[in-house]
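Crash report, auto-generated. Payload:
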Amino acid sequence: MKKGKILIIEDDRFLIKLYSDKLSREGFKVRAAISGEEALHKISAEKPELILLDLVLPQKSGFEILSELKLSSRTKDIPVIILTNLGQETDIKKGLGLGAAAYLVKTEFSINKLPALVKEHLLKSKTK
Amino acid sequence: MKNKSKQKIDEYKLTEATSVISHQLKSPLSTIKGYVEVLLSGDLGKLTPEQKKYLRGVLTNTAQMIALVRDLLDMARIEASQLYLQKKSSSLSKIVREAVKDFSLLAKAKNCELSLGAVEKLPLLKMDAIKIKQVMLNFISNAILYNKRKGKVVVSLVKKGKNAVFCCKDTGLGITEKEKKKIFSKLYRGKRVIPMVPEGLGLGLFIAKAIIEKSGGKIWFESKEGEGSEFCFSLPF
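Recovered output after restart:
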């Protein structure tokens, strides 16, 4: 049984594989997009239940994507977890201020904790 | 006046450039870290003890690289007065225990006895737990790396008046009178320690001082050449 539909927005193919494999092994249905345009296209085709979002991306930044998601009534309730290497306070404040459910810095986060974190936020969004 | 504003712009550009470079360096490092963590978790199959040992070596070295990049970025932020802390209520005693645990393998490898002395359970403190742990790790790693053979390191956390006081005591080389004046300076490394750990940058204590002072605390040390040192910091409740 699939546990939830996850969309990864990340331009590093090694990280896409890492996140996808980890979450797929735990029973999640995972898709990935390497740019904002591709992400918005995939979201309109099938609405994900949770999004993992990088911030430094080609064309549109993660912040711009997050703003667009939170402006649309169709996507504003999807929990978005930011996973980035930008760790400055200004970035963290901006991300959380735009409505991200969590903000994590890749180098300070263990991939092994990802499935539990995703489950936690999926549960939170369902009980809202 | 013009020179001063030009200097400000240069400093800003340097901080921005350091930030971009740090980001570029952190990206592949976080990927390596993630891949090794998955291998070590056994998700892709059982590993032999020897394979695990090799992978832990990769992970330890990756963590060192991440710490170096973080130090460079912290240095640039301190220089530009842009070191910000994310304060949240956290448990100091929990962080102390974690920090000691993090270094148990290194201590063992260096034939050093790392132990917890008095660790009092204190009220939660509003602080940047990641940055405070960074300071503790700096004290503990210095105490292990610059110790004598079969040396000892004792870490403690106690309440003194309205402050929590963390100390890390070692039986290492000690610090000479000349070195004492420069110990918290940026990029300073004592002549005697360079051959012991050639790859250090001399940023750890400079950053530690900035973090503790920014947190409203105090940092100090006592040391006797040939007998050892004790580095401490206090944080107000």
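Post-recovery validation: DSSP finds five helices and five strands in chain A.
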